[in-house]
Amino acid sequence: MSTAQPLLKRERKRSREIFERAEKVLVGGVNSPVRAFRSVGGEPLIIERGSGQHLYDADGNELLDFVCSWGAMILGHANPAISEAIADQARRGTSFGVTTELELELATLITRAIPFIEKIRFVSSGTEATMSAVRLARGATKRDFIVKFEGCYHGHADSFLSQAGSGLATLGIAECPGVPAALAALTLNVPYNDLNAVERVFLQHKDKIAAVIVEPIAANMGVVPPETGFLKGLQAIAKKNGALLIVDEVITGFRLHNGSVQELLGIEADLTTLGKIIGGGVPVAAYGGRAELMNHVAPLGPVYQAGTLAGNPLAMRAGIAALKQLTKPGLYEEMTQLARRLVFGLRAELADAGIPAQINAIGSLSTVFYTPEPVRNYTDAKRSDTKRYARFFREMLDRGIFLAPSQFEAAFVSVAHTSQDIDRTLAAAHESLQVISSDSAA
Ligand code: KE4
Asked: So what's the pLDDT on residue 8?
């Protein structure tokens, strides 16, 4: 007997009306492109509030949330300890533009969990973190080229917008207008999981490459884990050529365990970027690494980077409240077990429905790709049937399950999800896949 929630109980009349007004003053009605649901169709959501694993739209529909604000809400929405910390700090002042002890407290929590980050600089978005890390790498090495991987996404700074994942992949934007050709030419793209291609690009550009930047687990082309030896090989090639390794952990930082995923993968970056989870749902990101490298950054060194609200006490309190909860014994194991049950269950449902698909999953991250072939890089991911993904997304949303509104994103399980949520999701998937498998064309 299906335990899926009945189709959304309320027509989204009020949401539609709000979105129509939003479109008049917000570009596309959104403040970040992927929220427009362009690649999955249907009407974008207007969310009024969140609580735990649920979101509530403007029409009062309850949605089981597997987007989790793109991974930031590992503790679920309106986490009491985080909400209380924010409320308390709001009464004490939200930003002073001068150092507070709270910045030291959050920095200490992070550097204790990730000891190879000796010094850290807080910023307000993942983009600022990666942009600053690349500037530091260029400044410290006095080299201009960077290497990134097709389908990886490191935010929207100019140097990252070629062959990028996430929203650019979602909208099919391979090269972004507005980025000077001379700058774009300094970004060298190679396929993920392809060390030969990395070797080749270093041979071609010898001692001109400042850094390689990589998502240690790619999650912006959908989830694509690193193949055995890829990251260690990458670290070795970069080191051999005098280039720095920047590991972008904006998603993976504190996602798979209480610290850096690099610890689990046997690598140690020269610079690491963090975001999302370390802010507990408010704008906090960071870049950090060895002190001798970070000391190139102003005011100690000439590599300039600054920010009005960087390290503001309100955000620091939220981040501290979040990270303090992630030390709870068994927390990650429980979350991973739930995610595993979801993935195994989805695989079984896809097989029952006779629908060829791959599910790439690691920890509490996963992506369903509608393709019979393994997905080990961006070219593979783009072969997926994105129309079928869109159909699945809409069918699941109609059943109250909110998955990533793009093939090229990840689904996240949070601490707030329960075993009953997984049952409900699998029941909804069963019904949704029955509908899709009866489609002649997705
Ligand atoms: P922000 O500037 O969006 O805070 O972070 C940029 C960023 C950097 N590095 C990685 C690995 C990231 O995943 C991101 C941002 N992630 C996307 C979703 N995959 C943000 C969602 C959006 O753009 O709306």
From this structure: 60
